[in-house]
Amino acid sequence: MASLRRSTRVSKPRDYWDPTNSPPHRRHPPAFTIYAESSEHLPEHLPEHLPEHLPEHLAEGLLEGPEDLSEGLSEDLSTELSDNDLSTEFSDEDLSSELDEALSEDEALSKDEDLSEDEDLSEDEDLSKDEDLSEDEALSRQLHEGLGVDPPYQPQFLPKNRAGKSQNLPEDSNPLKLFQLFFTVKEIENIVKQTNQQAACIDFKRPWKPLTVTETYCYLGCLVYMGVQPLRELRDHWNLKTPVASCFTERRFQQIRRAFTIRDPNTSPEQPGDYWWFRVEPLATTIRKACRKYWIPGAHLAVDEGMIPYLGHTRHAIKTPHKPIKQGYKIWALADLGYIFNWLWYSKARGTEGLGMRSCRNTMADTQALVLSLAKSLPNPNSAQSYTLYLDNLFTNIPLVKALGQLGIGVMGTTRVNAKGLPLSLIQLKHAKESLK
After folding, report:
1. In this structure, are residues 399 and 364 in contact, taking their beta carbons and an 8 Å threshold?
2. At what angle do helices 250-259 and 185-199 cross, to 10 degrees?
3. Are 301 and 334 in contact (CB under 8 A)?
């Protein structure tokens, strides 16, 4: 082993902060002082620089002391506001009449509120909310007009803050029943049939035992467990005796893994008109329909890309070396709280699903057209149940925002400087690196 070479240079001394040598912290004197204590603790002399507009007696009272201050204030107040002025401005008759009117109005309002609450509580709550909003808007407008300031931006679409929730779920549901909503027994039976047909064409060292529906559900459950609890190698699940080892032997698991297929290419090859993802059909269509059937989307959703890992050789997969999933199939997903409500397939060779045969005269690019296509899959997008889509700078531009606005769907997201339709003022602010005011 080679000897380690050490440097002969003397290390430079390090400068450490010494709190004893640090300069003392100077406190700036306050601009003014408010005294809230008793008269005994007040200072003897007050500053000489007093405002010129103060009354003479008040200034003299401040300079002389607290005793003279009270006298000066009383004299000034007595001279400025006399009893005659108060009597002329506020009379007992005016006060009594105003009080009677206010009491009568309060009684009428209380009676009306009691009657309206007995008739319909829900309608009154909605009306009161609308009235409160209208009053707040009117007050804010008056305030900004009085101050000469532009009112804050009010978005055109204000959907109610409702969260997504499930629907049409079976009673006494458990994890297996929920899983069977997406992987139905009918689809599993088709997988069993296709897998047994492909296994007949494979030369195993040990005889192949026909696959069953129960074994298929167990195999899919083991795949889910392996995704949640990954190990370095597959055989470690049997070495460490994980739950996978209690379901299958290593030899049986390897046999099913080798023969497992959703559509056997030998007996069911690709037909003219099939989609490029025909190898996962009809299971993919069943799962996509179930995603929309058992979920009510909330008011706030997101559209973004997703990756399905795949390391095989195919012209439809893409490579993203800077992403967590480096290689696989790409989808455009419409998601709500981590739940994928709908998606569109993407192929490197054929583009986005449903957009490959579009006319070249379309003013909207495929990147924006896919967002519009996913938005139209929402239930009743043009009704009072509106939505807000959150997008990144890959999608957002002015034509897309206008098209979604016609559907009653709002948009919130970032955008790029070269986005189509972006105002010149915003582009100049971006280049100047200034913030919006």
Report:
1. yes
2. 90
3. yes
Residue 416 has which token pair? 């790029």
Strands (E), 95-194: 165-166
Q: pTM of the predicted model, to two decimals?
A: 0.62
In degrees, rounded to 5, the angle at the alpha carbon of residue 204 between the alpha carbons of residues 198 and 210 is 55
CA distance 153 to 140: 12
Question: What are the structural domain ranges in the chain?
Answer: 169-294, 295-353+363-432
Question: pLDDT tens digits, residue range 334-367?
Answer: 999 889 999 999 999 999 998 865 545 567 889 9
CA angle 426, 304, 166 (to 5 degrees): 125
The H or E element that residue 120 is part of is none
pLDDT, tens digit (0-9, with 9 covering 90-100), for 24-58: 555 555 555 555 444 444 455 545 554 444 445 44
Q: How many CB atoms lie within 10 A of CB 364?
A: 16
Give the torsion through C-alpha atoms of 327, 330, 336, 338, to 10 deg. Answer: -20
CATH no., domain 295-353+363-432 = 3.30.420
Extract the tokens encoding 173.
């549901």
Helix (H) or strand (E) holding 412: strand 409-413
CA distances from 167 to 62, 66, 349, 437 (A): 75, 75, 37, 44
Answer yes or no: are the C-beta atoms of 45 and 33 closer than 8 Å: no
d(CA 317, CA 315): 6
